[in-house]
TrEMBL record:
The keyword Coiled coil does not apply. This is Transcriptional regulator. SUPFAM superfamilies: Homeodomain-like (SSF46689). Residues 28-47 bind DNA. It comes from the Bacteria. Keywords: DNA-binding. One of its GO terms (molecular function) is DNA binding. Signal peptide: none annotated.
Amino acid sequence: MENQDRKRLLIIDAALKRFAHYGLAKTTMTEIAKDIAFSKALLYYYFPDKLSLYVSVIEHLMHQISRDLVKSVEKTSSAAEGILMLVQKRQAFIQKYYKLIEYTKMMGPELPDELQDKFTRARAFELKIITGLLNKGNASGEFSVADLNFTTEIFVEAISGIHFNILNRSKIIYPDKEQFKLIFLKEKRFTEIFLAGLKQTNRS
């Protein structure tokens, strides 16, 4: 790895730790530079502002999560098990990096283009994984799904709705451990009901 690439990665890793623990608003470029014994000038050489660093952190994190998710899903023995694994990994990711991701909600409805692009790609990747698992279930006789893409969209939107509904009802920004536990239990139960419905269709 080139020295410049190594320094850039060190900055991203340090920023990820800060953003995940304190959130973006409460983290300064000075603190990040101090954590890795870099000068502020060097930090700004690689990233002209905090937003550009945040975008790079999001991109780096999504690459890590994508690789981990693919490996975990590949180890499952059935399509249903793979989808349940995805839900579990998804929730663990949200819980661990909630302060990092939640900042995007504070930006309002109009995200910067560079951020919108990262989240659009992440959603497309998630949809692709789930569609692939449903297709795998069709091929094995585990499921009988007529419209894979539409079914995938319904599933992802419903899972996301559970998360946001609980938080909006509680009128909170940062959920505690018990609320995360409730979110995951409801998402897991919904997934089980959803998958059972696909299997029921196969038996009819």
